[in-house]
Amino acid sequence: MSREGRDRPYALELDPGEVDRYRLMAAQARAAEADLWELAGIGPGASVADVGCGPGALLPALSEAVGREGRVEAVDAEPRTVAAARALAAAAGLGNVSVAEGRADHTGLEPGSLDVVMLRHVLAHNGGAEDAIVAHLAGLVRPGGCVYLVDVDATAMRTLPEHADLTDLGERYAAFRAARGDDNRAGLRLADRLARAGLELLEFRGRYFIGQPPPSVRPPSWAAREAMVVAGVASEDDVRRWDRAFQEVQTAPVPATIFAPVFTAVGRRPA
Fold first, then answer.
1. Is 67 left (phi over 0), alpha (psi -120 to 50) or beta?
2. CB neighbours (10 Å) of residue 150?
3. Which of 26, 102, 157, 238 could form a disulfide linkage to 107, CB 3.0–4.6 angstroms apart?
4. Angle at 136 between CA 133 and CA 140, to 5 degrees
5. Minimal CA–CA distance to 165: which of 108, 246, 51, 95?
C-alpha cells in the first residue's frame, strides 16, 4: 500500500482520512477474500509477510488468521507508516506480529522462510520495478508457498453522481501517475507477473467494490494533492476547489457511490 520498490517519494500523504481508507479496504478484503486466503495458506500456524503494510490496517486480521502458533512479518518503506503499524500492533496486543522498514524489492526477510507473502496496492506505485518486486517476493516463500498480489484497474474506477471538479482531480491524478511511470492498470497484469517470476498460478480473480464510504474517506487522488502541487500539475487553488467539491458531495441528498475493480492473483512456488 505504499511506495516500496524505488528510491522516490511516495505520493500519498498519511493523514487520518487516509488511515481510515486503509481500514475500510482492510475490512472489505478480509470479507471478500476469505477463500483466497485459505487457498494461499493463510491459516493457523502459517508464517505470513505483509509487504507494503502501510499503517498496518490488515495486521489484526492476519494475526488472527495465523493464530498464536503463526507469525506475521510486516514491512514498509516509509518510516511514518512503520511507526504507525508498530503502534497499532502494540495497542492491539498482536504478539505474533513484527514490523520492520524495508522495500518491496529488498525486504530484508529471509529467503525461503515464509508460507505466504502478501503485497497489496504496491505494484501500481512502482512502475518499472514490478517484475523485480514480484521476483524478490517469490524468493521469500518456501517451496509450495504462495505469493498473494492485490491491485486495481484505476482507469475503470468511477464515482457517481459525477462532479466536474472531482472528475478533474481524478484525471489529473491519472496523468500525474502516468508521468511518473506508474501503471494505472496494474491489477490487470498480476497473473502475468506471477508467471514471469516462475510461480504456478492458482487463481486470478476480479471483483467490483461498490460502496458509499464515510465522509472521512477520500480517494488516493486527494492524498496525492501535495505531491501533484510540487510536481506542477496542480495549484493550491486547485486543491481548494477540490476540497470544496468533496464538501458539496458529502452534503448532497444522494450519497456518492464508488465503483472500483479490484484484482487478486495467487501464485505458488513449485515444490
1. left
2. 23
3. 102
4. 135
5. 246
How high is the pLDDT of residue 87? 92
Size (the chain), residues: 271
Q: How confident is the model at residue 247 (pLDDT cuts 50, 70, 90)?
A: very high
Phi first, then psi, for residue 258 (nearest 5°) are: -100, 135
Asked whether the beta carbons of 54 and 85 are under 8 A apart, the reply is yes
Q: Which helix (H) or strand (E) holds 227?
A: helix 225-231
From residue 10, give the alpha-carbon distance in Å to each of 112, 181, 207, 228: 29, 13, 27, 11
In order of 65, 67, 110, the CA distances from 113 in angstroms are 18, 18, 6
128-183 confidence digits (pLDDT tens): 999 999 999 999 999 999 999 999 999 999 999 999 999 999 999 999 999 999 99
**Mean pLDDT, rounded, for 187-212:** 96
> Alpha-carbon distance 130 to 195, whole Å?
13
Distance (Å) of CA 187 to CA 46, 130, 233, 238: 26, 12, 25, 29
Amino acid at 112: G
Cα gap 146→200, rounded to integer Å: 9
pLDDT at 2: 46
Assess whether pLDDT exceeds 80 at residue 70.
Answer: yes
pLDDT level of residue 21 (50, 70, 90 thresholds): low
Each residue of 66-85: b (16+ CB within 10 Å) or e?
beeebbbbbbbbbeebbbbb
In the 8-state DSSP scheme, what is residue 21? H
**pLDDT at position 11:** 47
State the Cα–Cα distance between residues 160 and 172, nearest whole angstrom.
18
